[in-house]
Design a protein that fits this description.
By secondary structure, the chain is α/β, with parallel strands linked by helices. Among the domains are: 124 residues, no CATH class; 175 residues, 3-Layer(aba) Sandwich (Rossmann fold), CATH 3.40.50.300; 65 residues, no CATH class. Helix content is 50%, strand content 12%. It has an eight-stranded mixed β-sheet. It has a four-stranded antiparallel β-sheet with strand order 1-7-6-5. A two-stranded antiparallel ribbon has the order 2-4. α4 crosses α6 and α13 packs antiparallel against α14. The longest helix has 97 residues. The chain is elongated. It is a single-pass membrane protein. GO terms for molecular function: ATP binding; ATP hydrolysis activity. It holds the Pfam family AAA.
Amino acid sequence: MPTFGSLLPVAARRRLLALLRVMLDFFRRWVRADVNTLAASLTVLGGLTRGLESGSDILRGMRRYLSHFFTSSIAISEENELNHEVLNWLRVHALEGKQKRSLVAQAPTSAADQGDPSIYCFRDDNATNQELDISYLPTFDMHYLWFQGSLIMVKRGLEQNISLRSLFLDRSTAAPKGKEPLLLICLGRTVEPIQKFLAECRRFAKFVAKDHVKVCTSTWYVYFDTWLLRSPRSLETVHFEQAVKDDLVADIARYMKPETREFYMQRGVPYRRGYLLYGPPGTGKSSLSFALAGHFQLELMMVHLPGVLSDLVLNRLFADLPDKCMVLIEDIDAVGLKRKPGGDDEKRANEKEGKPGCTLSGLLNVLDGVVAQQGRIVVMTTNHEAELDEALTRPGRIDKKVYLGNIGKESARQMFIRMYAPDHTTVLPTASPELLKLADQFCATKALHGKFSPAHVQEYLLRYQDSPQNAVQGLQEHINEQTRLMEEKKKTSEETTKNTGEETAKKLVNDEASGDKVSKGNGNNNMIEGSGKANGMAAKSDEKSDEKSDEKNDDKTSSSRDSLDIEEIEVVSPETSSDNQSDSSGPRDSPVEPKKDGGDQ
């Protein structure tokens, strides 16, 4: 049997042998290693590598076996609120200040701005420290901690969709994006240690949020993915009619009582409440919602309808609402939800004018349909209450409407006192009696009442935050300037409307003129065609009339002839009749015989 060397040409075999001699000389002279020894070493190293791989497979199988029979675990999905509470507890108790080799670092406020729900983003609105604390969170690697004498292992899962670049990243160095499931493992055949740990995480979350308002927002996902803890706002900082405010607070307080819930349930009434806050821009509708949530210690769930992809997503968001919460839907009139005319409320087709997203029908269903959540309070805000659909504002969906108008006399006085009253951080030179006097002077300006929004008045006072006297002195000049600007804006708007109307009228006139020309041209063509048709019909009628006249003339001729014959027969005298008897057989003297095939006889 021929060998590989025998198949090569002689010259090729010589060159191959020369190359091998050069390689052997290189290893002997420069590496100073025996080729046989080097080959044996490589063989042993390969065997060890293979043995380690087999050993790791054996250890992996043993770990899987031990995990299956000697450990217990609980999994938490990425969208569940408990996921964020566990991470927040780990951030505070297990990771900060501890010696860990792999962590994820992030600033809480920037994470909130980017929509990262990994932690509760605590925002102290009263804080003066400009430095941002760094938060540390677990990576995808396994993290171990001791809790009440039990070993708890927390494993953060990878995302389902992994990019090509992330395949080359190590699991312990890749940064999570905040939307990963958690797996909690403990030794033993019971999950009781994990349940105690989760209960502690829930307790800590409630403790942190006790003196804050928990704000939850949704973006393009099917769940609330951003959680903020903000300092509450007092109802006294929202300025509108005190009687209206007291009535609204009393209505919500009555609804929140346990006996009210029992009253609703016993009588089969859905236990939910809807409010509509309407009025001009800047009157504090959104601020009032936030203040009410803090006053009644409710979670504020903000639903951004333009970001909801479909009715199914909207149903999912409302299905995930807590038992007691306040749902805020801002600027409901600007969302663009409309319905086609015709039919009843339940049969009308609701849509969003060609844009993808939720429909009016979907919103109505989550407000008071079968899937509507019990126990929640829905607050909707709008600048134009008259533009809302009646089906949206009817009782059962909106139980109470609250009008927030421009600032009044008493509200302006309260705002002035609140803005310049001394507190524990600022010492103003203005004494309290003098402040009250300035407040009376400020609110005594009648041109201020009902003309400007609370936001506008507050912005004006902030210009003179260090001098209330200047705020009072410059008020009238500010009002005159704003009045002039309003009149100019109104005049410009009227001129624009007038010009638009004139242009529209001219366009209509031009369209009518062009339409008349077209119709006139069509009329001329129709007249020409009609005249042609008339001439043709006239010609045909003339032919027919000629034929009829010919027939009449023939009839007249024959009848005249007949009459002449009759007359001639009648005038023949008896004397001459005998002379003409021989000619009686002629056609002229013969009587006309009637036709036998019909006609007259």
